[in-house]
Amino acid sequence: MLDFISALPKAELHLHLEGSVELPTLRELSSEVPGDIYSFTDFQGFLRSYGTVCLLLRTPGDYALVTRRLLERLQEQNVRYVEVNLSVGVMLWKNQDAAAMFGAVSQAAAASPVPVRWIFDAVRQFGVEAAERVAELAVASTGRGVVAFGIGGDEVRGPARCFRDVFDFARSRGLKLVPHAGETDGPASIWAALEIGADRIGHGFRAIEDPVLLSHLRDHNIPLEICITSNVRTGAVPSLKDHPVRRLFDAGVPLILSTDDPAMFGATLNGEYRLAAEVFGFSRADLELTARRAFEYGFDSTPPSGP
Ligand code: ADE
Ligand code: ZN
Q1: Is the Cβ–Cβ distance between 131 and 151 less than 8 Å?
Q2: Which CATH class is domain 2-297?
């Protein structure tokens, strides 16, 4: 099974650059890395650690380095297409030159054989004006591989309805919309994300609590970006066996397997496929279908023709 999973051509559609930085790389960047930086035990602790990592990324060179390292890891796993979330909302909060940072990461990406597209991510709890600035930067970079605008962070402290105008603006300028929703809040948060135009939902596993929502996602072909290990590590699900990935799949909801913040959670994309197989009983055919569909749900991907 492991060889089978490794050999599958895969697309990774929900991954944050800032969450992909392995501890040794963080230590290369700074001598002040807290030893317990990845030892959070709940979602708020995770958000604090994520903020700390972001603060350790200071220069365009830092961003270029972590991009190179990430793409090496993905290439090793036979990832043939990736959409990388960039926390532009956090960059602006840090008063960084986001355009310079994006220049550095896109240059690093151009040197990799893995095709990379970008999602500029705003932080829900930073508010609407901050999100508008992120959306404007995303729109200004559509010619350079930016395909979507997203909102992450705390869905409870930043309800989707507040971002309707920002989403309208981004959509009208050709961007796709990928909010995180239904991770730490329930189905109403997913409905709200759909109402403002979500093309895919980051996480969204709590759709399992609402049969009407499950049918809606299936009938409108709106995929959930499922990140099993992430949900366990942030405590969004009580335990691994409680994860509803199998029930979502059986309900015909379109799914994409993803890692979210691989270094912070100790996750790999191959590992997520392995969990699907070993814990949730996905057959080889199920995995093959899931992997192929991920390319179809990419905003600018070409499904691979051969192995
Ligand atoms: N930013 C990075 N990872 C995230 C997650 N799992 N939820 C919300 N915001 C995030
Ligand atoms: Zn995420």
Answers
A1: yes
A2: alpha beta
